[in-house]
Amino acid sequence: xxxxxIGRNYxxxxxxxxxxxxxxxxxxMKPDSAVLLKQHPFVLPEFSEEIHHxxxxxxxxxxxxxxxxxxxxxxxxxxxxxxxxxxxxDLQSKLKEKGLxxxxxxxxDGSAVIGEFxxxxxxxxxENITFELTNNxxxxxxxxxxxxxxxxxxxxxxxxxxxxxxxxDIIFTGTPEGxxxxxxxxxxxxxxxxxxxxxxxxx
Length: 203
Prior knowledge:
- By secondary structure, this protein is α+β, with helices and mostly antiparallel strands.
- It has four helices and 14 strands.
- The protein has helices spanning 11-16, 89-97, 103-106, 152-159, and strands at residues 3-7, 26-30, 51-53, 55-61, 77-85, 87-88, 112-114, 118-119, 130-135, 138-144, 170-172, 180-181, 187-192, 195-201.
- The strands form three sheets. Strands 1, 2, 4, 5, 7, 8 and 11 form a seven-stranded mixed β-sheet that branches. Strands 10-9-13-14 form a four-stranded antiparallel β-sheet, with no helix packed on it.
- β9 and β10 form a beta hairpin.
- The two termini are 27 Å apart.
């Protein structure tokens, strides 16, 4: 299983981090060791002083595909959820300044929270679906897929040009504005259309 992540897919988040708006989807990867195990807390790593939460809509691939046409991409997933792409922002900033890859800021152990999956058939439209992250019961990030620069099916089509998609692969589709640092004892909860799909304690 591989985790494929899309960066800079919401305009306001691009502005928030003062990044350049891309002309094509920005792709990075996380290894399977990045998945935070169920019922485990997220332990703040010693190598960073600034771990940010980034809540995202995620999809699970259900069959093998390569060079997928966008009009057929909907056939390659039938479950969606929400997750967190934890980011060591201080490390990422230093690496970006030097023009270096920033996997260590994004792909470290436990950096990928994957919520409970729901059938996509439960939702009337995946192009207008809301998701939210709360921290200690206060809303900190809200997003809607309507504001994606690239929709889910477009992402699948683009990614599949470079990587064969396999059963069980997860795609993180990008985060909206509102990213911020987490601290010990925070409780993070993720919601899709108001339904809670994960609860994580920060240690």
